[in-house]
Amino acid sequence: MNDINYINYDDLLDILKKINNPFSRETFLAKVKSNLGEGNFIWYDMGSGIATSSNNYKLNNNTCAKIRSDVAGAILIFNLSNDIQQVFKDKREYLLKKNTYFLGFSSDKFEVDLSFKKDTSYNTLTIGIKEELFLKLSNKLENLNEKMIEAKENSYSILEGGDIDHEQMETLLYLKGKGLNEFLITDLYLESKITSLVHYTIEKIIHNVNSKLNLDKNIIRSLKKAKEIILTQYASSLSIKEIAYKSAINECYLKKDFKIYYKMTVYEMLQKHRMKISKDLLKEDFSVKEVALKVGYKHTGNFSKLFSTYFGLTPSVYKKQFNK
Questions:
Q1: What is the DSSP code (8-state) at residue 21?
Q2: Measuring CA to CA, which residue among 211, 74, 56, 214 is closest to residue 135?
Q3: What's the confidence (pLDDT) of residue 22?
Q4: 264 phi and psi, to 5 degrees?
């Protein structure tokens, strides 16, 4: 794609300092290369099986950065800025929205492409937890072994996502406010804040998963029917009322329980699926207007705006690469 800079994530950075502290603690500071943008990257290994990284940067060009890892474990990612599109090895896409987090698992052959828009600020905090430690911390999580097996087979697995709440945000803003030099020394209070954030978030995830598992079977059946309607009738002008009627569920339950079960609203799933289908259609011999109509948008302008929000470029620009 002509207007996107493809790069390995490590090649974005210039190393500033790397310090080995007592008891296997390690700190790594870097900045974005001046010709690519501006910003900082911090890696802080607590030496206990938990490491955290924080980045705060803005890039000069639309960029797709590839991250690779050979360390298996669990990953908590908190996004404090603009939406970030992630594409995994199996081409599955995951949109990490502003002020949300998710829990993922990675194998020792993990790869993901992150998409960043030019002149846009990004700020995320990532906490990596070694597999053995995470299994001990999360022994109340059901179907965890299933997710671990999935990660080993596909190189990754996503278990849970959600909105960042007030308590999480308080800790994240504290960590965001730490100066670069403060990460160069062993800081037990900083480490306790990170550990508390991990513990609190895992407990929150356990509660959310259990809430999902405790839904009535009839409600779950209706929610699955609603999803089927979204995935097959996406080109129609679907309303909550219509989906609820066809799924044999009360509108209020549909809105509330759909988000609990699928971790997104009805309209978020509908929009996400429409965007996915539109990318495939744009590769074919259809105009942007025709694609917009085929995925349920009467107004091409609205479709183009949504597409740009999701993928960082207009559908016209995306289509041009297949018409050379």
A1: P
A2: 74
A3: 63
A4: -160, 160
